[in-house]
Amino acid sequence: MAETHTATLDRIVDNQTAVLLLEVDGETVDQLDVLVTQLPEECQHEGAILEVSVEEGELCEVEYLPEVTQSRKESAQDRFDRLSTKLSDRTETAP
CA 80 to CA 95: how far, in whole Å? Predict the structure, then answer.
């Protein structure tokens, strides 16, 4: 029986292997390594968010989620920007 997960393409190794981090309820629960060529071309980049079906450790179906990918990218950038701001700069602008 196939299981459906949200997955993040964490990295591509040697331009051949895509390392997918599988999530359940926002938590990473497993890793699945697949050939990059098994993924649609538009999502063959680090940080791509996918919905995948996996059966017996094998990738069955892949759907690229471009809106979720963009949202997570923006959220991560916002967090980075907040963390990179000096604490003194943050307290001066706070009411």
Answer: 22
Q: pLDDT of 34-63, one tens digit each?
A: 999 999 999 999 999 999 999 999 999 999
Whether 32 contacts 7, CB under 8 Å: yes
H helices present in the chain, as ranges: 66-84, 87-93
Residue 10's Cβ-count burial label (10 Å; 0-12, 13-18, 19+) is: middle
- Residue 90's pLDDT is 57
Pick from 76, 74, 17, 4: nearest CA to 44: 17
Cα–Cα distance, 60 to 52 (Å, whole number):
7
**Residue 1 amino acid letter:** M
* Pair 53, 47: CB distance under 8 Å: no
Q: What is the pLDDT of residue 61?
A: 95
d(CA 62, CA 38): 9
pLDDT of residue 79: 81
